[in-house]
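Hi support team,

I'm filing this because I wasn't sure whether my run with iron/sulfur cluster finished correctly. The job status page said complete, but I'd like someone to confirm that the output block is well-formed before I use it downstream. Pasting the exact inputs I used:
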Amino acid sequence: MSILRMSKTLIKNLLHGPFTIAYPLKKKETYERTRGSIGISIDDCIFCGMCERRCPTNAIRVDKARVSWSIERLQCIQCGYCTEVCPKKCLDMENQYTEPSFGTVRDVHIKCTNTQSPSES
Ligand code: SF4
Ligand code: SF4
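And here is everything the job wrote out:
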C-alpha cells in the first residue's frame, strides 16, 4: 500500500470517529433479516427435542413430560440451527436482541394442554 493511500485511509478513519456504538446506551439498529432472539409458537411445538439436540451451546431445554420449552437467552449465539431443524417450523428468529443482563435469562414457555370442552366443565 502506498504512503498516499495509507494516509488517505488514516485521515478518513480519524474523521469518521468510532465504528462501534455504546450499546446498550444506544440502541443497535436492526434490519429485516437481523438474527435476533429466538421466538416460539408454543402451541405448534410437539416437544420432539430436535432443537435441544442441535443447539451447539445447550441453550434450549425441552421437557416433554411438562410440555415446556425454555431457552437461556444469553447462552444463545443466534446461529439459527434450531429454526432449521424444527419439524413443525414453530421457531423463528425475531427482529430484536435480548436485553443485556448480568445474570442468566431463561425464558420458559409451557403449552396449555387443557382440552376440556365447555360442556365437560
Ligand atoms: S424442534 Fe420444534 S417441535 Fe421439536 S421441540 Fe423444538 S420447537 Fe418443539
Ligand atoms: S440459535 Fe443456535 S444457539 Fe441459539 S438456541 Fe438456536 S441453536 Fe441454540
